[in-house]
Specification:
Largest sheet: 4 strands, mixed
Distance between the termini: 74 Å
Low-confidence stretches: 15-20
Strand order of the largest sheet: 1-2-4-3
Order of helices and strands: HEHEEEHHHHHH
Number of domains: 2
Shape: globular
Radius of gyration: 20 Å
Number of helices: 8
Number of strands: 4
């Protein structure tokens, strides 16, 4: 038995090495790995791999591999302590406030999965539908939020729209196509409304889903004009 132990350990090491090599998610730490504990890095990697597999089952058109660039920063969503964005062809950037009292592990366990669902929907849509106009942005954010809600079963405050969401959507559609995205989607309006474009976009996504009988995943490549037509008819 003792003579076979080295062989068993060597085989186990080989299996583990192959498992690591088989990962389709590569995580880069922009501030250096020392900015994140080994426990935090493990949680991020595990969450990222599991979530990417989940999302690709719903959006098989996504690239087979993903690069996640993780950085520590304070320019995040106050409610979540993190934020994300994507860039072609297969990069997802995730910013997390490492100074928050709950810690990176708690934030990653609570938020990373939902953020990945949202951002990977953007990555899939951006491959075929360019975000040029304000309404391109509104519809894209709405579909991504609906995808996060319906497929990850995650609710976010910018996805909870009020009864007057249709009026908000019509207000946005009447604006110039080059109206400032930040002002209408992410900032607080002078009248006190917040996340106008995100909430209106989620309303539009929900209406388009109901009208067409298709999911947010199915609508990932639907042109903006068609989504609006289905939502507002």
């Amino acid at each position: 038995m003792s003579g076979s132990l080295p062989l068993i350990l060597a085989a186990l090491a080989l299996v583990l090495a192959c498992s690591r090599q088989a990962s389709n998610v590569t995580v880069h730490y922009q501030n250096g790995e020392d900015a994140f504990s080994s426990g935090a890095r493990h949680v991020i990697q595990e969450n990222a791999e599991t979530t990417f597999r989940e999302v690709r089952r719903a959006l098989p058109q996504l690239p087979p591999t993903l690069i996640i660039e993780v950085s520590a920063g304070s320019n995040v969503i106050p409610e979540t302590g993190e934020t994300g964005y994507t860039s072609a062809p297969n990069v997802l950037s995730w910013v997390v406030d490492t100074r928050r009292a709950e810690g990176v592990v708690a934030i990653a366990n609570r938020e990373l999965r939902g953020t990945m669902f949202h951002e990977l929907h953007h990555l899939g849509r951006d491959r075929v539908i360019a975000r040029v106009t304000l309404m391109d942005q509104v519809v894209s954010e709405g579909l991504a939020t609906a995808f996060e809600r319906d497929f990850a079963h995650v609710k976010v405050p910018w996805g909870e729209y009020p009864p007057e969401a249709r009026a908000w959507a019509l207000e946005l559609r009447a604006l110039p196509s080059d109206a400032p995205v930040g002002k209408w989607l992410y900032e607080t309006h002078a009248d006190g409304r917040r996340w106008i474009g995100l909430k209106a976009g989620t309303y539009l996504a929900g209406r388009a889903i109901a009208s067409t009988g298709r999911s947010a995943a199915d609508l990932v490549a639907m042109p903006t004009a068609d989504v609006l037509s289905a939502a507002l008819k």
